[in-house]
Each structure stands twice: as structure tokens, then as C-alpha cells.
Design a protein that fits this description.
3-stranded antiparallel beta sheet, DNA polymerase, domain 1, DNA recombination, mainly alpha, single chain, 2 domains, Site-specific integrase, DNA binding, DNA-binding, hpI Integrase, Chain A
Amino acid sequence: RKKDAEELSCGFEEKKELELWQQGKRISLELLKDALATRENNSSFISFFKQEVSNSSLKDSTKRNHLSTLLLLQEFKRDIVFSDLTFEFVSSFEYFLQQKGYHTNTIAKHMKHLKRHINIAINKEYIEIQKYAFRKYKIKTVENKHTHLVPEELEQLERLSLTDKHMKLQKSLDAFLFCCYAGMRYSDFTNLSKKNIVDINQETWLIYKSVKTGTEVRLPLYLLFAGKGIVILNKYRNNLEDFFRLRDNSNINKDLIIIAKLAGLSKKISFHTARHTNATLLIYNGVNITTVQKLLGHKSVKTTQVYTNIMDMTIVHDLEKIKQAALGIKKKTDNSFNK
């Protein structure tokens, strides 16, 4: 890292020396420092950030995430030049996000976006590598505790009958339940169309490409959760495109908080709870983890393994199966012995 810093610094100095020589100016260390300081002070990091996102090959959804960080940066400090990007700036921005009530991992996401663009600025020689703001700053994360529904809680939502003023929540509820049965992310559900529903050997499958990973996911809906997902699709068969077009994720999550209360649930659920519920209940019911990996569209089974540790009921369920098997063997042995 030190070697890289020295090489980058030397490269910048050589470039500046050539520029000053071409301008007929006498080269000195002070002149080089002034040239760099002028560039840092006069260049807008906000414009640079926006341009880099626009020109990048990132997916549209990822670009939107980066631009959300940019909006927060502008809220924190309206005009940001490269010389502002110090350790103190980064630490103060973190505190600003904490005061806004953001979760530790959400703050980490925004910090990673900021770090990426500061790194690009260094590579493009807008900032000296010796002034790298993230040199001593450590991005903090905590292990997520995945919220999921147990079978009884899922049944409470399935039995919920919305009336009067709450009827407008029906589509949000049905979309959430469908994703409990299909294990889908919000981004994948809202990207669906009728063409993703396919008949194979006269059975209904859902085939789609994950927005997040680009992985193709193939779901035999008729085999998942007793085909309940197909029942919901049939309910909206005349207007499927509208069913798949939900409002933004934050508003749907607000709907789900109300729905959970109406169903008598004590948990605070979000749309992503559906995906966690799907994975947890499949593993609980004995589905092989590599099969769950394919159904969720995970590239690595390590990502799926987190679901094997989040449900005490799964442990009890597995041990009860072993206990029953052991009792069966014991009973068989006892009968043989009595004979």
C-alpha cells in the first residue's frame, strides 16, 4: 500500500512538473503543492460523484442506491469539494446518519458508496493518496438478525380478512404472502410480468432472472406451500401486470406494519420478511439446503446457511424426528426380544 501511494504521488508530481514546464514556469515544491491544493479546492465532489455514477456500468437499481447516498451527502453539506474529504468529514457524516436514525448496516452501505467514489477520485488524481479519508476510518457493521414468521404467524396472515378502510391493503398483503411462498425479493417481484409464469408439463412454474444477482431462478409453484402462490396469481389473473406493480418499498413496508397489527402479530415485518420466512420454513420442513439455495437464487450455499441457525423450532423439530426414529427402533428391538 505504501509503495502504491509513493508511485501515485510520483506520477502526479511528474505530470504537474511537465504542465508547469510547458507553461514556462520555474518548478518548485511549493508550486507543485499549490497546484494540487487549487485542484482539490476548486473541484466539486458532488458533480464528480454524480458523473461517475452516470458513466458507470452499475445496474440501474445500484445506481439509485449510490444516488441516495449523494442526496444524503448534499443534505449533510450542500457544497463539497475534494479538500473537504477528510477523516473528520467522514466521521461527522457517520454521526449525521446516526442522528437521522439509520441502522448501523444502512450507514455502512452509504459509507461504502462514499469510499468507492473517494477511491475513484484518488485514482484520477483529484485527491492525494496521503490524504485518504478512509485510511484510519473503519466501516462498522453488525450481524443482521433475520425476522421471519413461524407457521402459526403465517396462518394468521392467511386468515386475515380486510374490511372497510383496510381493503386498500389487500394487494400489499397478497403480494407479501405470494413472496412468502415464492421467496422473492421486492425488486424481483416488481420486475415480474405475465411471461415469467410458464407451464411445464401442464404444471405452473415461475421463471425469472434476479435483479440483484442476474441469476436465473426456476420455481415450481405447484410444489411450494401446497400451490398457494398459484391461488393468488389466479385471483389477479385478469390484471397481473397491476398486481406486480407495487408502490415503493418503504410505503409497502408501512402497509405491512398495519397488516401485522390487524392480524395480531407482535413482530414488525417488512417485505423482505417474506423471503426470510420462505427459506426458514422450507428448511424447517426438511428441504435440502442446496435446493433452498437454488430456490432463493443464491450464488453460494454459504449465503443460505444463515437460515439454518435462526429458528429454535427447527432444532426441536429435527430432534423430535430423531427421537421418534429412535423410539421406533427401540420398539422394534423390544418386540424382537420378547419373541
